[in-house]
Amino acid sequence: MLNGTEDEEKWLAEGIAGIQHYAFFMHRALDSNNLREALKYSAQMLSELRTSKLPPHKYYELYMRAFDELKRLELFFKDESKHGVSLVDLYELVQHAGNILPRLYLLCTVGSIYIKSKEAPAKEVLKDLVEMCRGVQHPIRGLFLRSYLAQISRDKLPDIGSEYEGDADTVIDAVEFVLQNFNEMNKLWVRMQHQGPGGVKEKREKERSELQDLVGKNLHVLSQIEGVDLEMYKETVLPRVLEQVVNCKDDLAQYYLMDCIIQVFPDEYHLQTLKTLLSACPQLQPTVDVKTVLSQLMDRLSNYAASSADVLPEFLQVEAFSKLSNAIGKVIEAQVDMPAVGAITLYVSLLTFTLRVHPDRLDYVDLVLGACVKKLSNIPKLEDRRAMKQVVALLSAPLEKYNDIVTALTLSNYPRVMDHLDIGTNKVMAMVIIQSIMKNYSCISTADKVEVLFELIKGLIKDIDDADVDELDEEDFKEEQNSVARLIHTLYNDEPEEMLKIICIVRKHTMAGGPKRLPFTVSSLVFSALRLVRQLQGLEGDIVGEDVHVTPKKIFQLLTQMIDSLSAVPSPELALRLYLQCAEAANGCDLEHVAYEYFTQAFVLYEEEIADSKAQVTAIHLIIGTLQRMNVFGVENRDTLTHKATGYSARLLKKVDQCRAVYACSHLFWVDDQDGIKDGERVLLCLKRALRIANAAQQMANVARGSGGPVTLFVEILNKYLYFFEKGNGQITSSAIEGLIELINTETHCDSTSPDSISDAFLASTLRYIQFQKQKGSVAGEKFESIKLFSI
Amino acid sequence: MVLVLALGDLHIPHRAADLPPKFKSMLVPGKIQHIICTGNLCIKEVQDYLKTLCPDLHITRGEYDEETRYPETKTLTIGQFKLGLCHGHQVIPWGDLDSLAMLQRQLDVDILVTGHTHQFTAYKHEGGVVINPGSATGAYSSITYDVNPSFVLMDIDGLRVVVYVYELIDGEVKVDKIDFKKTTATTHSAH
User: Fold this and answer.
1) Distances (CA, A) of A216 to A34, A137, A273, A496, B99
2) Is the distance from CB of A623 to CB of A580 less than 8 angstroms?
3) Does A666 touch chain B (CB under 8 A)?
4) Which residue windows are transmembrane per the record (chain A) (predicted)?
5) Computed from CA positions of residues A470, A474, A478, A479, in that sequence, does the dihedral angle turn out positive or negative?
6) Judged by CB atoms within 8 Å, which residues 670-689 of A form the interface with B?
């Protein structure tokens, strides 16, 4: 192989040297106005181009040298005063050159000047030249020769408005010339495939592709001709070009040229000749990558549609959509072996086109999806990653276009396409859908749409075919489930009946999620349901006559079932919180038994499931806080629950926690609104109990550590005394308060107590509070007056 | 001028999908010096988002927070003010000003920021100021009916703090402001 390249280098060098050698003599002849000599040496120089040894890219280098020299020669030929021969005669003279290739190069050169001089009509000369070039049938040599012809004739075509236009010379002639040159060049190009020794196919195709632009240039020229309007393109240019493309039966040429046509001619032309263009596709060789050609075409047309709204009616007028979808259908049908990714890419291009051109035609969009479903159904199991990516692209396109998931949900084929995705890709797509909803702050408001949506995202909601739940990274899993949880809040309808339907549908789907998913989804759904209860509370008075199917009671039943399912996880702390939320909601609906039941459930969880001491502290505070707000309980029920609460408070592990929980319980016996309980005695009992615990804690600290614990607890209790004192609890006397202050001071100054600036500051600000209250005047001030503060 | 963003009770994802878009577009990184968050975010994504707004982020634990290691209370000094932060479910009765005042005395702070009730409030009492920034997402609350999304921005300048409250009412952001002045500098003299 290496030897081959070395040889080629050598031959090229020899060729270039040859050209330079003869060019030298040619220049001398030109300088001395010696036409004869000039012709002789130029012919010899051009003979170097007769070589068959060079590959295309090296031949090109040789050609370029010759080209430069021919320019000089052209200048000489132009100036009749230098050589004294008329152009007519010169035209004849150069045909005496010995070998055909040099002869034709010279002829073309003279011909160019001939046309320029206007001594002969452009049409005639061009016709003559393009025919004469037939004499060279060697592919590479012929291609470069004709390329030379194309180059020098470029600015001499009888185009509309050009100086070469005449009565007999019209743009038709220009077109004819270019078409003929194109045809001949293509034939030569195709012939390369079959000629020469066996050789390596790849090498040959590589060499051919190096020459492709020589052939394609003709199409460029055609597109630049002013006189080629839509009419001429439609009637003459395209049919003739396609004829050549189809008849040459060469897949390399066909692919390149179809692509060239699409790129080179304006989009409006393509639109108007869509039928012709598309009908050529099935006639191409089966090995041609027609789908890429079609995709290119659709992408161009999509961009054209996007460029301005004015062009859209044109698309409708030519029925672009149906033509394209038919063409695609035919191609996919014909090429049974087409890999899935190819077919789906085609559909992606068509869908992009449809969304740009006919965004309002959801039926078209659905058709495209349907065609894709059909193709996917014929594939037993889609495993190709790239194909999957394309399906995701297909499904994402409508989401991006419409920014509204509800529109996508109305496409009947949308879920069918998703059905063909494997689990992993389904989840990816589901996340895309959810993110689209989040980004657009969409709201899905009907039960049937919710049903469709949850079918679509089922990969996230439950395990399908015992797939790889364990393999999934925990972070990713959390992200997924949090997304589902957030999604639930976008499902809303202010009609209670519809809203309840929505909740039930979501519940139906999420119940199958398994213990890992339930904590995420149950919480969201519970609060969705609680919002509905709140809404019903507001409506309660307004419902007249009509049978109301949606009642808070019904929803509470649902809620209980939902929270109960958390026991399978198990998730006692969460369940406890949710039960308490429901209790408060039941309180608002005046449902005493329901509320009591919820408290029971909460206490059961507390007793049986919550063992962690820190968790217990929080849990008991939540219970106390909720219970404090309940006004629906009768005396008995209330007593039972408060008794339980205080009991558990006193039995927390750490004394500090016990103390705080117990004094919190004091509020259970004093509710500040007008009907609220105000049991001063029991308040005081609680506070005293808290005090005893604080004392015990202090003693324990002394024994265990040798020094007293912080007096903060005492100050906290003092503050509670003051709270109830201020509220008017007669059981709390000013002397009790004074005694407590004295106790704190004693403890603070006790030898065994370590100094604590925090409790000191706390006490100080508490005393300041008392002072402030004294100065308030009116009833409050009088009350506080009775507290004697000694200077500290 | 030091800007402090106070917000909390977002309850994402259990009770809300996201912050309201109008709030999101107002909260841009680089404008705020501190963020104090009362709790109940509830997931790490929300913490990460807040961190992008401002790296100096302080959070206290709400009862639904995924992260159980946030502190129960936090105090910090910004300029001449001592601020205290606590979610508030620990202070019973919930939302009771006098009980919150006790916590304020206990933490020894000028400004106490708590949440839990999802109701914006700003009270001044002799011991200082108690602020509740409400729920930034307008999340459901058993305590407050008809929650409007809200958050608070405090502008601390010397001995003065201007409290701006941003509330989303019927789709429009309404702003209100309250002025508070300290009489003395931070170090308390006992009297």
Assistant:
1) 39, 19, 20, 68, 87
2) yes
3) no
4) none
5) negative
6) 671-672
Q: What is the pTM of this model?
A: 0.83
Dihedral angle at the C-alpha atoms of A242, A248, A249, A252, nearest 10 degrees?
-90
From B14, B96, B102, residue closest to A719, measured CB to CB:
B102
Residue A489 sits at the chain B interface (C-beta within 8 Å): yes
Q: Which of A441, A534, A628 sits opposite B92 (nearest CB)?
A: A628
Name the B residues in 140-169 with CB < 8 Å from any A CB.
140, 142-143, 145
B80/B187 Cα distance (integer angstroms): 9
Tokens of A370: 């349907």
CA distance B61 to chain A (A): 11
Hey, what are A244's tokens?
Answer: 């050549």
Interface predicted TM-score of the whole assembly (ipTM), two decimals: 0.95
**How much of chain A, in percent, has pLDDT values that exceed 90?**
58
pLDDT of residue A377: 86
Distance between CA atoms of A716 and A712, rounded to whole angstroms?
Answer: 6
B172–A contact, CB cutoff 8 A: no
- Chains A and B form CB pairs within 8 A to the count of 104
For residue A549, what pLDDT is reported?
A: 74
Q: What is the pLDDT of residues A612-634, one digit of tens each?
A: 999 999 999 999 999 999 999 99
DSSP H stretches of helix in A48-138: 56-78, 80-83, 87-93, 100-117, 122-132
A106: nearest Cα among A65, A52, A150, A45: A45
Contact across the interface for A769 and B98, Cβ inside 8 Å: no
Neighbours of B32 (CB within 10 A): 17
Positive or negative: CA dihedral A29, A35, A38, A40? negative
Strand bridging mode B81-86 / B73-78 = antiparallel
For residues A91 and A106, what is the distance between their CA atoms, to the nearest angstrom? 9
| Residues recorded for chain A | 792
Using a CB–CB cutoff of 8 Å, tell me whether A519 touches chain B: no
**Edge-to-edge strand list for the sheet holding B172-181:** B57-59, B34-37, B2-7, B150-157, B160-169, B172-181
Q: Which of A706, A646, A718 is nearest to A679 (CA)?
A: A646
**What DSSP designation does A408 have?**
H
